[in-house]
Amino acid sequence: MTAMTRRGALLGAPALALALALAAARGAAAQDYPARPVRVVIGFAAGGATDIMARLLSRHLSARLGGQPFVIENRPGAGTLLAAEAVARAAADGHTLTYASSSTVITPLINRGSSLDVPRDFAAVAIAQASPMILVANAGFPARTIPEIVALAQAQPGRITIAHPGTGGINHLSLAILMRRTGAEFTLVPFTGNQPALNALLRGDVDLASDSLFATRPLLEAGRIRPVAVTTARRSPLLPEVPAIAEHLPGYDVPFWSGFLAPRATPPAIVDRLNREVEEILKLPEVLERLRGFGAEPVGGSRESFQRLIEEEWRRWGELVRALGLRGD
């Protein structure tokens, strides 16, 4: 007796027929998807690396899924929380997605007013890329390596000032991990975004800054600031001469990732189809070239592996946020 026959005997013919009909309907719904334009909500302003990648991937998704537009909606504010909450409340039919990032996981953990639980409220669709952040120094700062910086901070606690683009963001938390791992004490200086933090570095108001490769690359190429180390486990192919912090602190790995999420109850057949399409899009030369221009690497993989990453990030950052007392009102 086959598994299907045993199941039919247990369920009875009418129940089995209903189950098969429902499965067929779900499959047909995935094949017919999308039936109308798909809204892609982003928690960042237009023009940044995350916005550019979302638009590029969405354009290819539209072309591969029958030409229905994937319409980008920029909804910045509250550290991506406004965008995430809007999508979590949307109809779970695959026609509303968010192009999310590491910040999407971190922000609800910090904002006491949010009831959002990212692993519970979202279905992981596809992770597109991971990229390092980079620690950069102003031209006059004497220490050049992570060991030199740590030694100076240990000798003179609070002496070294480091700018970052906002309290509770991944740049801030990457620095908090560095301090916890080394026992060094830095003075962390939050700003309201990438450019104000880098402007302070250029003026010499701070010694160092933690930011993205995308934001810092023009200044690095012009020689106006100096690279120190990247935050991923390995060096970036874009800056192969710049060491990874992990070379001095084994296990240190804080990448910035981005990818698509959907409301949790979105049909698995639709999520699977989107995942397969993104996987193929990430192989396209145009997409690979753009990713590498940002210093990013394509990731891809199953939606289940992406879901596990989100659950691990939720646990990891939650523990750090609680330890640092960052959860506010």
Tally of structural domains: 2
Q: Helicity range of the residues?
A: 40-55%
Mean pLDDT: 90
**Helix count from the secondary structure assignment:** 13
Give me the CATH fold name of the largest domain: D-Maltodextrin-Binding Protein, domain 2
The sequence of SSEs as H and E is HHEHEHEHHEEHEHEHEHEEHHEH
How widely separated are the two ends? Answer: 60 Å
What is the CATH architecture term of the largest domain?
A: 3-Layer(aba) Sandwich
Structural class: alpha/beta
Fourth CATH level, the homologous superfamily of the largest domain: Bordetella uptake gene, domain 1
CATH class of the largest domain: Alpha Beta
Q: Please mark out the parts with pLDDT under 50 across 5 or more consecutive residues, or reply none.
A: 2-11, 21-25
**How much of the residues is beta strand, in percent?**
15-25%
Q: What summary fits the major beta sheet?
A: 6 strands, mixed
**Shape call:** globular
The neighbouring-strand order within the major sheet is: 2-1-3-10-4-11
Number of strands: 11
Query: C-alpha Rg, in Å?
Result: 22 Å
What labels would you give this structure?
single chain; 329 residues; alpha/beta; D-Maltodextrin-Binding Protein, domain 2; 2 domains; six-stranded mixed beta sheet; five-stranded mixed beta sheet; 13 helices; 11 strands; 47% helix; 19% strand; disordered N terminus
